[in-house]
Structures are given as structure tokens and as C-alpha cells.
């Protein structure tokens, strides 16, 4: 690691920035992954799987997954992986056996595309093609119309009031039957609360309430909103988000260019919104529409800007006045956060190049040979970091010295003229780099979310898609690894054992995709990180995004 000490001339005070040049080794001869991003047929009726090894008999429930599964309609094809039509998956597990089923989300976007047999609703990286039946003038002027908003909710499964929904980063969700995977009614957040979009990564408290992060924009500017949906019993005949409320509104530091965000931080008493220097340009959005270009290029990475951590009391919604900030970084997924002796500890997967989001085009993912190697080697290495925020800062505290006094972290927080400057601790040893860094982190969420914890699980990225499963022990930053050539595991999900005594008593589940043979549901012993069993599926499954385990179905 190279440590660079620099003076922040523009703010009139000195702080210290740790710049890491750590990156995974360059790769060559990567395996072709085109089959992982090909359209598949749905399997609406549950089919049997072939069990190899043993799936523990105490596991009863459904592993639900979401992600893109159809990438073309007729002759028109989606340009970006995120644009593929949402395909929902269900592995139902009982008595050591498993069945598999899948269904395309019958979103308005899917139905309209299917009816016209072409892409008629624009997505993140794909602009809808003009109607060929219109004359040239009508097609030209259609570019000046506000595009239809997609409801292709292909990122994750989420829960509100006990009901299941599929969600993405738009204003619409769809309620889902978690057993049949039937698409139910469309839900528009704006009918319940004054927001324009919400994340696909809410947090849940132990009373059953759900928290999320949304935004709005208008004459008064651009705002990020922390919102809360009260608990429910999951026995609703229709979608019900009644009682949803905005706890806190945070004005954008630059209302002309708000920040992109994918998730947020929650501890027992605080919620943190990270305003990162991935910026959205609304003007570009409109200009690109007129020019006939897709929307993923309206985002820009601005490494000259700070990353700002906005902290709000989870119970009162009151914003802490202290400005916490760091040098430029980006984060998609949080690991965990908890409070300890007047400090807020936040662990997350971070990178130093926020241009990565727009790069997952179908062209790049279907490349081979040197082109695939070049694409992979251009991607940022995401690594786990810890930031520590001192919550109780005395007004007479002198500037330019470390405010953190915890024995187990090397993270620092230095008071400056403008706020508190944060430097992170790396939550890994160098052996992680040979597995490509990590992403898609998960913990024992039921019992350890927002509490001190020891373990987390993730995908290692020695390829464009995850090619290993990792268990990180934060005591010593020690790794356990499951990795086999040609196998691409999905986000790991921890399921606690019914008689668990330790944090890692349970199993880790992952859907493993392979272009070589049958894909399968993998079940690992979470403690030893060794394979217990797998359920092989006789149909094709594309690489997906996020999921959860539902003990109720």
C-alpha cells in the first residue's frame, strides 16, 4: 500500500488521505460467459431437482431470486444487462428435497414489449425503438415526448408489511405471490408518499418496520428522503403501504447534479445516507432523449468531489449537524453498521472508480478472448472498508487530531474547519486480492444486523461475474473460500440454524450458474464453509442479482 499525505488547501485545513493502489491481479484467458446472459424460457410449474450430497432436513422454506432473463423482443435487443426483463426464481426446500420454478414478471413493460414483439419501453441502457408504422416526422417528434416509465422490477425481492414485492430503483414495485410467483398489482410509491423513487435495498427493524431511501425533485430543488413503512401481518388482499412516512429530507449538495445511490446504512439508532460523487445530470437526460441515446450515460464519476455522510436519528428523523466527509469513493452495498461507545461503525464494499455501473453492456458481457480480458481488467476492484463516525464531538475539540479511541480499528476521524474528515480501515488482508475483491455482501441479518458482528459472506470477483464464495472473519480478517473453475455463484444468503448458538451456525445458499453443465442451488455449512449438498436444475438459469430466503413458504 502507498500512503500519501496531502494538504487540503481549498478547505483551509490539513487532513490526511489514505490512497490505496491495491487492485486484483490482471487476468488473461478468461472463460466466455455469454451463456450466462442469454434469454431463457420460464418454468412456471415446479420441477424436481437432483440432490447431490445432503441438504439439511431442518431447512424449510423458499429461496427467492430475481434478475434479468430476457434480452430481446423480435429483432430489437437490450443494450445493457440491467435492462433484461425480470425473471423470478424459487427453490422450495423441504425434508432435504428441492423443487425449482421461475416466472417472468408480468410488468407493463414486459406485456407491451411482448404484444408489439419489439422494445417499446425504454430501460436504463436501451432507448425504445420508434414505431415503424409511424411516418418519419412522427418518429422524430416522438423523441421530444416524456418516455414511458418502466416498471421492470428486476433487482430484488423486498418485504413491506409482511408482503413480498419485486423492486428496482424506480417508483414502481410489483406485489408477488411468493409461492406461485404470480405477478399481482403494480404499486406506485407516489400514491402513498411524496417520493419519485426508492431503492431495492430496504432495511428492516426487529419490530417489522421497513426503512428505505427515496428522492424527489421540484421547484425547491432535489431532496433525498429517508422513509419508514410500519409493520404489518402479511395477510393483505391488496398492496398496502399505508402509514408510510418521510422521516427526514436531505437537500442535495448540488441540486443540478444529484448523486446516484443504491443502498444506505442503518444501525440501531441512526440512518446514514452516503452522497457519493457519482452524479446524475437531468439536462443530459433530456438531451440524450432528443439525440436518441440511452440513459445510462447521464451518470458521471467526479473523483475531485468529496463523499459526504449524512447522519439522521432513526427514531426522530433529526439530522446530525456535523458534516462527515471523506475523499472520493463509491459504494453499492453495505455490509453492516452498529454503535459502540459513542461511535458509529459502518462497514461497506467500496471502490475508487464509479464509472463501473454503466459498463455492464451486453456487448461487454458477450465479449470473448482478449476483449473480455480487457473489459474485466478495466473494472474497479471493490474491497471491504470500515468507516467510523464519532457521534459526540465537543465544540472545544481541537482540529487536526484523531477523534477515534477504539482499540480494534485503524480508521480515523479528524476534526477540520468544515466538519470531520474520515479515513477508512481496510477490512481485508492481501490474500483477498487473488480472489478479485468482493461484492454482494451478506450477514446473519436476522440476529446481527445493526449489532456488533464477526462474519460476513460475499462473492469474490476473479471474473466479470462472481466466481467464488467468500467468508470473512473480521477477527484477523481471515478468509474461507469456495471456488471451482467454470462455476459462477450468486449472492450468498445466510440462513440461521433453528438451534443456533454461534453467529455462524447455519447454512449459506447460492445459486451457481455455469456454461458447462447443470446449474444448481448450493448449500454450504456456514461455519466450515464446506459443501453440504446441491440441487441440480435441468433447465437453463441466467446470472441474477439479489434474493432472500422465505421461511414461510
UniProtKB/TrEMBL annotation:
Mind listing the GO biological process terms from this record?
carotene catabolic process; retinal metabolic process
Q: How is the cofactor bound?
A: Binds 1 Fe(2+) ion per subunit.
Q: Record's Gene Ontology CC terms?
A: mitochondrion
Q: Which GO terms describe its molecular function?
A: beta-carotene 15,15'-dioxygenase activity; carotenoid dioxygenase activity; metal ion binding
Q: Which cofactor does it need?
A: Fe(2+)
Highest taxon, organism lineage? Eukaryota
Binding residue positions for Fe cation: 201, 262, 333, 546
Membrane-spanning residues where? none
Keywords on record? Iron, Metal-binding
Q: Which InterPro entries match?
A: Carotenoid_Oase
Q: Which family does it belong to?
A: Belongs to the carotenoid oxygenase family.
Q: What is this protein called?
A: Beta,beta-carotene 9',10'-oxygenase-like
Organism of origin: Sinocyclocheilus grahami (Dianchi golden-line fish)
Gene name, Swiss-Prot/TrEMBL:
bco2l
Amino acid at each position: 500500500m502507498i500512503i500519501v499525505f496531502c494538504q487540503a488547501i481549498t478547505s483551509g485545513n490539513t487532513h490526511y488521505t489514505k490512497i490505496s493502489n491495491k487492485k486484483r491481479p490482471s487476468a488473461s484467458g478468461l472463460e466466455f460467459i455469454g451463456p450466462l446472459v442469454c434469454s431463457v424460457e420460464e418454468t412456471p410449474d415446479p420441477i424436481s431437482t437432483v440432490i447431490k450430497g445432503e441438504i439439511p432436513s431442518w431447512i424449510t422454506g423458499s429461496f427467492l431470486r430475481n434478475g434479468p432473463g430476457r434480452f430481446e423482443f423480435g429483432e430489437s435487443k437490450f443494450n445493457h444487462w440491467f435492462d433484461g426483463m425480470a425473471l423470478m426464481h424459487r427453490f422450495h426446500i423441504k425434508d432435504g428435497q428441492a423443487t425449482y420454478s421461475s416466472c417472468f414478471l408480468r410488468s407493463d413493460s414486459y406485456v407491451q414489449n411482448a404484444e408489439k414483439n419489439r422494445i417499446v419501453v425504454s430501460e436504463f441502457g436501451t432507448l425504445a425503438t420508434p414505431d415503424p408504422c409511424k411516418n418519419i416526422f412522427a418518429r422524430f417528434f416522438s423523441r421530444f415526448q416524456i418516455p414511458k416509465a418502466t416498471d421492470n422490477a428486476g433487482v430484488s425481492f423486498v418485504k413491506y408489511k409482511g408482503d413480498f414485492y419485486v423492486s428496482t430503483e424506480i417508483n414502481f414495485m410489483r406485489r408477488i405471490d411468493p409461492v406461485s410467483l404470480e405477478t399481482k398489482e403494480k404499486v406506485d410509491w407516489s400514491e402513498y408518499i411524496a417520493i419519485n423513487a426508492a431503492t431495492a435495498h430496504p432495511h428492516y427493524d426487529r419490530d417489522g418496520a421497513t426503512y428505505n431511501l427515496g428522492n424527489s425533485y421540484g421547484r425547491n430543488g432535489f431532496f433525498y428522503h429517508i422513509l419508514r413503512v410500519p409493520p404489518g401481518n402479511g395477510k393483505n388482499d391488496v398492496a398496502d403501504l399505508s402509514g408510510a412516512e418521510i422521516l427526514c429530507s436531505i437537500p442535495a449538495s448540488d441540486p443540478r447534479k444529484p448523486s446516484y445511490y443504491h443502498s444506505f446504512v442503518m444501525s440501531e439508532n441512526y440512518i446514514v445516507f452516503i452522497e457519493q460523487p457519482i452524479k446524475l445530470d437531468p439536462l443530459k437526460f433530456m438531451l440524450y432523449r432528443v439525440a436518441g441515446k440511452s440513459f445510462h450515460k447521464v451518470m458521471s464519476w467526479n473523483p475531485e468531489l468529496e463523499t459526504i455522510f449524512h447522519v439522521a436519528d432513526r427514531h426522530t428523523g433529526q439530522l446530525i449537524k456535523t458534516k462527515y466527509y471523506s475523499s472520493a469513493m463509491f459504494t453499492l452495498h453495505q455490509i453492516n453498521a452498529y454503535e459502540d461507545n459513542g461511535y458509529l461503525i459502518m462497514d461497506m464494499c467500496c471502490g475508487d472508480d464509479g464509472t463501473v455501473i454503466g459498463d455492464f453492456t451486453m456487448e461487454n458481457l458477450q465479449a470473448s478472448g482478449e476483449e473480455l480480458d480487457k473489459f474485466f481488467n478495466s473494472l474497479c476492484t471493490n474491497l471491504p472498508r470500515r468507516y467510523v463516525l464519532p457521534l459526540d464531538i465537543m465544540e472545544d475539540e481541537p482540529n487536526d487530531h484523531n477523534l477515534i479511541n477504539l482499540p480494534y480499528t485503524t480508521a480515523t476521524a479528524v476534526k477540520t474547519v468544515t466538519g470531520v474528515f474520515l479515513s477508512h480501515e481496510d477490512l481485508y488482508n492481501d490474500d483477498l486480492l487473488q480472489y478479485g475483491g468482493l461484492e454482494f455482501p451478506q450477514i446473519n441479518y436476522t440476529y446481527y444486523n445493526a449489532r456488533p458482528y464477526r462474519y460476513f459472506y460475499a462473492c469474490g470477483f476473479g471474473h466479470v461475474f462472481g466466481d467464488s464464495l467468500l467468508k470473512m472473519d473480521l477477527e484477523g480478517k481471515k478468509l474461507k473460500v469456495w471456488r471451482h473453475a467454470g462455476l459462477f455463484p450468486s449472492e450468498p444468503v445466510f440462513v440461521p440454524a433453528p438451534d443456533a448458538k454461534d453467529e455462524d451456525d447455519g447454512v449459506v445458499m447460492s445459486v451457481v450458474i455455469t456454461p458447462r453443465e447443470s446449474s444448481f442451488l448450493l448449500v454450504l455449512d456456514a461455519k466450515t464453509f464446506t459443501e453440504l449438498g446441491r440441487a441440480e436444475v435441468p433447465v437453463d438459469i441466467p446470472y441474477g442479482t439479489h434474493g432472500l430466503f422465505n421461511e414461510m413458504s
